[in-house]
Amino acid sequence: MFALRVTALIAATMTTGLMAGVFGLYQHTVMTGLGRTGDRTFIGAFQAIDRAIINPWFMLSFLGALLFTAVSAFLNPGRQILPWVLAALVLYIVVFAITIAVNVPMNDALKAAGDPGRIPDPAAVRAAFDEARWVAWNLVRTLATTAAFGCLCWALVARGKLG
Question: Which residues span the membrane (predicted)?
Fold first, then answer.
């Protein structure tokens, strides 16, 4: 049982850390770079990135962070670890909800605009997308996932002290 507890906690920490990295890179690199492009380039590049990110590696991390953290909370009921794992779980549930309720619908709406080369008014499509809103919610995801990662790191430290 010890090996399963530790494995779940390590998997939760790793997948949550990967997601913190993904959201962080979008925040300070991807969206910053795209923000400096023209409307057609922004739309086309964002559509291409959004299609590319839906892959097994991303989904393993995105869904795995939620699943492994929940499993870790279930398997590690001790007072030294459980509060940190539960805090990480709550934070990641917030991230998951924001992603499903805000970012994914915005991404889908931009993809539904179609081929950027055929959009008569790309500036209107980009304005309707509302980059500032997407970036603001992504900042919340970045901060919450980073905090969840920190909680899980501390849970590993606490786990190590227990032996």
Answer: 6-26, 57-75, 81-102
Give start and end residues of each alpha helix (H) in the chain: 2-25, 31-35, 39-53, 56-75, 82-98, 104-112, 122-129, 131-162
How many domains, in total, are found in the chain? 1
b/e map 144-162, b = 16+ CB within 10 Å: bbbbbbbbbebbbebbeee
- Within 8 A by CB and 6+ apart from 151, the residues are 84, 85, 87, 88, 91
CA separation, residue 14 to residues 9, 67, 144 (Å): 9, 12, 15
Structural domain span for residue 71: 2-162
Q: What digits encode the pLDDT tens for the residues 82-119?
A: 999 999 999 999 999 999 999 999 999 999 999 999 99
Q: What is the pLDDT of residue 160?
A: 84
Tokens of 35: 């923000």
Name the DSSP class of 3: H
For the question of whether the overall pTM of this predicted structure is more than 0.85, the answer is yes
Q: Which two tokens stand for residue 55?
A: 């892959």
